[in-house]
Amino acid sequence: KVEGCAACAKYLLIVFNIIFFLVGAGLLAVGLWVLLSPYKVDILAVLDNQIIQTGVYFIIALGAFIFLVGFLGCCGACCENRLLLVLYFIIVLIVFLAQIALSAAVIAFRSDVDAFITDNLNTTMNSYVSVDDEGKYSVGWNAIQLVLTCCGTNGYGDWAETDWAGTETYTINGQSVTLEFPVTCCKVDDPYALVDGDYPEPLNVTACVMNKDSNFL
Question: Name one Pfam family in it (predicted).
Answer without folding.
Answer: Tetraspanin
